[in-house]
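Progress against Task 2.4 (sequence-to-structure conversion) is shown through the following example record, which the project officer requested during the mid-term review.
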Amino acid sequence: MQVQVLSWAPKEKPALCRLFHLVKGLEKVVDNFELAKKLSYNLYRTCRLQVLDSRNTYIRYTTGVMETEKRHSYGVIPLIGTPDSFEVLLIEQRDLRVPQYWTFAKGTPEGDETPLETAVREVGEEVGIVCDAVDQEFSFTEMYTFVREGVSIEKSVTYFAGRASTRECVLQEAEVVSARWCTPEEAVRLLKFQGAKEVLASLLLSGAPSRLLSRKSV
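Structure tokens generated for the chain above:
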């Protein structure tokens, strides 16, 4: 079922985009092509834009209901220090599709791994960090949606708090540009996405740093 039409006027005429949602009968006209695409994504995330005519003089997009895929990832947020003065580890993610950004280490399960096993393995692979204790009393989940190759991806990422045994990092260069130990305040400023900031806030409120960093090393 077609649910949206987005048209772009020829270059020699005033720039005009017509955004029309057939189901709701709503129409919006904007004078900037990039803005129209952004509006389309923000308002109708369940729709797909497909180029029908890619000539420079005229471009027309139509959309239909997208295929949806659910994906799950797991990670550990390493902590180091004392309950009163500690740091968290962020990674600068390498992604060819978007500019690199600061986030937490994470990844997808392999085989019949449990979420915790996946989380521990991924932080080891991406930054070479071994956590000698992981707080299992709480976990923290971030959820978001994005579109990749015509498919709407509904992503959930669950994190555990862990105590790092060392500050030294060994980076998986294919995926990680750099890593950085930060105070919670610095981490909030560096993290790109609001969901990640909220995960960090939830971790701090949970008491996990006090529980982990008060324990003796195993």
